[in-house]
Fold:
Amino acid sequence: MTDPTAGSVDFDLLAEPRLVVEPGMAARVSAVAGPVLQGMGYRLVRIKISGEFGCTVQIMAERPDGSMQIDDCEAISRALSPVLDVADPIDKAYRLEVSSPGIDRPLVRRSDFERYAGHLVKIEMAVAHQGRKRFRGTLGSVEGDAVHLRRDDARAGEEPEVVLVMEDIADARLVLTDELIAESMRRGKAAERELKQNLGLAPPPPPHAKKSDPAKSNKPKPKLKPIKKNAPKNTKEHRLAAERLRRGEFDPTEGD
Structure:
């Protein structure tokens, strides 16, 4: 079993409250599961209750750095099952599923919206904004309790830039794109490398190595232009010319 507290844990991110929350029965499950997850070093992302093939309670969780592995899901399931049995927030039989948020993950915290700025997202509002409840576009900056969004579905005459209050959002989810997949793979490799180093399965990085910032863009760096070197000034021709100049001899090639 992996231990999320084995390495460095950002406790501010761990305790960061969710701004997008579930109503009804899912909220009762959240009240029970949230503190248990936080005590284990994980963050609750989303709870979804569905009635397909019986009742299924899906709990999405993650480490504070956004990573999640199979061992983490198994550990959470073992810890939560008895707690939910005692608290009994659901009045019927159900099947418990613990999973990672996935690549096209929901955004529920302020740090989620900040981390994925520049990516495509679909948002459904609990409270209508300018007569609309559904938006799709590119995430912009976060200011105060609101997030900027540049709509890609704006019609002629409509303002493409909107500002949405995060607590009025019912659901916000990333749209699967090539850029999102590439960034997710980069984050996953970095998290796996750090975990191996914390467990002693890989050598630690050298002291001078800089830790990569997952918030930075994954675009390739532009190629630098080659530096033009000056011609050497110590060739045989230069030495003969200098010797003629010292003797006061005239160079018949000068002035041509």
Notes: The mean pLDDT is 83. Strands lie at 43-50, 56-62, 95-99, 120-129, 132-143, 146-151, 161-165, 169-174.
